[in-house]
Sequence to fold (89 residues):
Amino acid sequence: MKIAISTESGNVCAHFGRAPDFTFVTIEDNQVLKIEILQNPGHSVGSIPQFVNQQGAKYMIAGGMGRRAEAFFNQYGIEVIVGVTGKID
Fold:
């Protein structure tokens, strides 16, 4: 399973589109196999959901996002989890 987290200085960013980077975490058998931090590719309509999909993530964790953005993620089969705050650990 691969999870994307909108991040800023090791914390979940309040708004996914303004996050300076995204942390991708690969988990298998309840073990973290890989953590990769990639810069935000730019905030244009639909670009971040496409970017997250290209990285193979099936979940997007963020502090918040609008309904339109959530719909873009859902088009790629990516489940959105919002309302998360604090350190990504």
Notes: The first helix runs from residue 47 to 54. DSSP finds two helices and six strands in the chain.
